[in-house]
Design a protein that fits this description.
With 163 residues, the protein is mainly α. The protein has one domain. A two-stranded antiparallel ribbon has the order 1-2. A hairpin with a 2-residue loop joins strand 1 and strand 2. Helix 1 packs across helix 4, helix 2 runs antiparallel to helix 7 and helix 4 packs across helix 7. It is globular. The two termini are 20 Å apart.
């Protein structure tokens, strides 16, 4: 798995270096909307208490939903979205039991595969009232839609498959 994600990272950085301006043009103005949608989702994660529960799991029992192998869902298009959003992509895994993108303060990338935002563990479902979970999911809706649309738009660009 490590070799695959390292190759994806290398390809994303190369494509961004050669085609970053073209990507920005192709995704403008939706890229700005996407960043705002991510910020809206993050606010909902904090205000509902979901992010606090996620942060407490590794401290309380050493477990995390963001385990090794989850990075397999991070496609090159998602990595390119992160580079366009100004994210400095990691070069190595911090936690041998965690996702490649999991750092000590949570996820190191802003644009994430839908599975990363959609998963709500049993602990969250037990501790967070249903109306708060629904509020989070409603806030997350635009981010999910834009993640899909922008990723597909990137995949449709001529240089994407030339890699």
């Amino acid at each position: 798995m490590e070799e695959i994600i390292l190759k994806r990272l290398d390809l994303a950085r190369t494509l961004f270096r050669h085609h970053g301006d073209h990507l920005r043009e192709a995704l403008f103005p939706d890229l700005n909307r996407y960043q705002q949608a991510i910020e809206q989702t993050n606010r909902a994660l904090f205000s509902t208490g979901i992010s606090q529960i996620c942060a407490s799991c590794p401290e309380e029992d050493g477990l995390t939903c963001c385990g090794t192998g989850l990075e397999r869902h991070v496609e090159v298009s998602i990595l390119l979205l992160n580079l366009l959003l100004g994210v400095k992509l990691p070069c190595k895994r911090e936690d041998p039991n965690g996702c490649f993108f999991l750092g000590t303060k949570g996820c190191k990338i802003l644009a994430r595969p839908i599975i990363c935002r959609n998963h709500l563990c049993l602990r969250i479902k037990e501790k967070i009232p249903l109306n708060e979970i629904i509020r989070f999911q409603n806030a997350w809706g635009e981010e999910a839609e834009l993640t899909y649309l922008l990723s597909e738009r990137i995949k449709g660009l001529p240089f994407y498959h030339q890699g």
